[in-house]
């Protein structure tokens, strides 16, 4: 129900809990597909004869669209409502994953050549980048609509944890399903995403009346309230992207592995990394209830340690440990940045700011192939030296920028003092 003026009435905790569980499952599917793509595509690419640059461009095309479409779809969620944008993104993701697997399958069977397969791969990833971009932004705004400002860090961390948990279990699912074929994981995740879309359509409550488009302000990425957080998010997103995009190649070259071994070994490493992020977001943050500023600082420190270990590692154990430590850094740092940005703007700008902060991760995937892949061809350690340098740069930004230093200080003043939130 909603009031005549379109303001939603408070809902029961049970209703909110069910809604958040549905969002959790939807983002879980997206996370699974992302980690499967990063773990499975490099060995598939080498089997098909794709170059490192072509692999990077497949990631890059969806990132380019994500950078522009996530803010747009975030704003649309302020107007259309959160559920339509979430649903659009989940369906687009399912279609993209399914068709990508089919294109690779046709090429392996020899039914199409690489001249057709490679552009088709770019097209299928474009569906995800262009339309799937709104899911995380709308989901974060959905949660922000239904929590107090004092709860914002924990709620944003929970949304990030859903995606991270998907990243965690994704490589495990891939390693298990790869025995049925190299592409079986793509089909399985696509099926789960379609099922999630059905659940969102029928079960996710959306009681907020769509708003008049002319009444919705457009939040600029250059707004001084959010720009420092967007820069910080882009830095950490770039480091995360270069790690995920080069990890499989790095494992193959350092450990001298074959294609199927790489899927299994890297799958375990990425799963352990994501488990560390989930631990931070579902256990550490809710228990300690730290400030957004603290999360950014500690995430940066841990990130520096992780990339020093990457540069020193020469065997499987240290490499996995470095992935675990880096996962912990991302699991603490990214929610801190997103929550601080959410707290910096008005309630009617939550969709817009969620779209902007969501675009920073995609911006990292856009920048990484341009920089990290050429560096990798020169020397496999260079991308990890770059990661170390970027974490050091992030530390300087966190300490020097006044907006970031003062982030979250007014949260206590904005507590609602009651347990009911609109749904």
Automatic annotation (TrEMBL):
- How is the protein disposed in the membrane? Multi-pass membrane protein
Query: Where does this protein reside within or beyond the cell?
Result: Membrane
Q: Which PANTHER family match?
A: MEMBRANE PROTEIN, TRANSPORT PROTEIN
Q: What is this protein called?
A: Major facilitator superfamily (MFS) profile domain-containing protein
Please name the Pfam families in this protein's record: MFS_1
Ranges for domain Major facilitator superfamily (MFS) profile come to 19-404
Which SUPFAM superfamilies does the UniProt entry name for this protein?
Answer: MFS general substrate transporter
Instruction: Name the InterPro entries on file.
Output: MFS, MFS_dom, MFS_trans_sf, Tet-R_TetA/multi-R_MdtG-like
Annotated GO molecular function terms are: transmembrane transporter activity
| Transmembrane in keyword set | yes
**Residue ranges of the TM segments:** 20-41, 53-73, 85-106, 126-144, 156-180, 186-205, 226-251, 263-285, 294-313, 319-341, 353-376, 382-400
| Gene Ontology, cellular component aspect | membrane
Signal peptide location in the record? Answer: none
Keywords on record: Membrane, Transmembrane, Transmembrane helix
